[in-house]
Design a protein that fits this description.
Elements: E1 16-19, H1 26-41, E2 48-53, H2 59-72, E3 76-82, H3 85-95, E4 99-102, E5 111-118, E6 122-123, H4 130-143, E7 154-156, H5 160-170, E8 179-184, H6 190-197, E9 209-214, H7 236-245, E10 249-253, E11 260-263, H8 272-289, E12 295-299, H9 305-312, E13 316-320, H10 324-334, E14 338-340, E15 346-348, E16 354-355, H11 357-369, H12 375-379, E17 386-387, E18 391-394, H13 398-409, E19 415-417, E20 422-425, E21 433-439, E22 445-452, H14 455-469
Helix pairs in contact: 1-2, 1-4, 8-9, 8-11
Length: 472
Amino acid sequence: MTTRPDLSGLIKSYDVRGIVGDTLTVDVARAIGAAFADRVVIPDGETEVVIGRDMRDSGPSLVAAVADGLRDRGVDVIDIGMCSTDGLYHASGALERPGVMVTASHNPAAYNGMKMCRRLARAVGENTGLGDVRETAAELLADGIPVAAERGTLVRRDMLAEYGAYLRSLVDLSEVRPLTVVVDAANAMAGHTVPAVLGTDAGLPELPLTIIPLYFELDGSFPNHEANPLDPANLVDLQAAVREHGADIGLAFDGDADRCFAVDERGEVVPASAITALVGLRESAREIAEGRTPTVIHNLISSRAVPEQLAAAGAVPVRSRVGHSYIKAEMARLDAVFGGEHSAHFYFRDFYFADSGMLAALHVLAALGEQPGTLSELLESYSPYAASGEINSTVEDVPAAIARVRATFEGDGVEVDDMDGLTFSHWSSEPRWWFNVRPSNTEPLLRLNVEAADADQMEQVRDAVLGVIRQA
């Protein structure tokens, strides 16, 4: 028997992510496709898988390899071509098929990967099948892929227009006031989806939007900047263009366009928590109007303003760990109408409990266009507190650093919980502050998020905690 390769660095907790030609080859991709068939698709009683890809140059060969692996095991394949990750989720939901999205999201050009789901876009993570896929893919690489008596078929289908029409059916922009919108696609998949959903490229009616495109040309080498809007450097061009054109709003999408970030008319970045509150309140109002009590999920790093405002509006806010697999599971379990994360992943019950950057963008555009004020005026009440954003610290001994933080800050009216890392809260009395420290799953890092009632208090707590974490 050939030695089985170690795929733990490639097939991670939530997805597949590696360097093309190094950790991720066509042979590995074919084995992953066959393993997905053996460990998820066939045991679920499925016979067909939908597959899509982003704009990276390695995408076509990797899609072909994954499809070959699935077909080797007797599974039929529907190839929908280039799409955003939420476009793949839509196909999984609309066609009621499991899916594979070939993408490396916001990673640099040398990378590619895969995101997998069961039918109706249900996530496949470490404990819901991906660990089994990793194990079986290693076996198949070592021992070979047995070919089924009847190999699966391959058909191609374009679903972009159906995706756009479905999103528009969830949020109606036809009657909003005219808006000027700058969109930075970062040469990634929003350059494919925005003209179809917000424009007329897929045959949908014209909306009262003037779209000013930045970097819509699909180019997996990312010639202008990385498709990672979490890095402020990648928002500079969008901010400048919004101010230059006097636009109402700017939108930035990541590589596979499942996340959406916004900047206001001044070019100021809108916190993801403000979007969570805005969209959560919109979805909650619709539920309440239909006689239901809405549940909204937010991760534990979201601003305290999110649960406060949702509860005041009659919704039930539920706190979750960070990570899409946790939020998607909680949303399905509780039939939550919406979920939001600090990383700008936004999840919708009406979108198969999956995340969609485009659907979040539609909600923000609708909220802006349904009233006369600016975006900064609209969102002012959703960001009443001061937040640090996520700060990473490299530490030699992560458990020791966490122990120092606990020893320093525990007590004196501070509540501590360990849902995800450690959260220390002094929110029930003055001065109001909280912070969370979480270890990275893959690096010797501690991630810190701080929020307080005002900027001075936030900075004091931030600096005190960092001093303890980075203590030599």
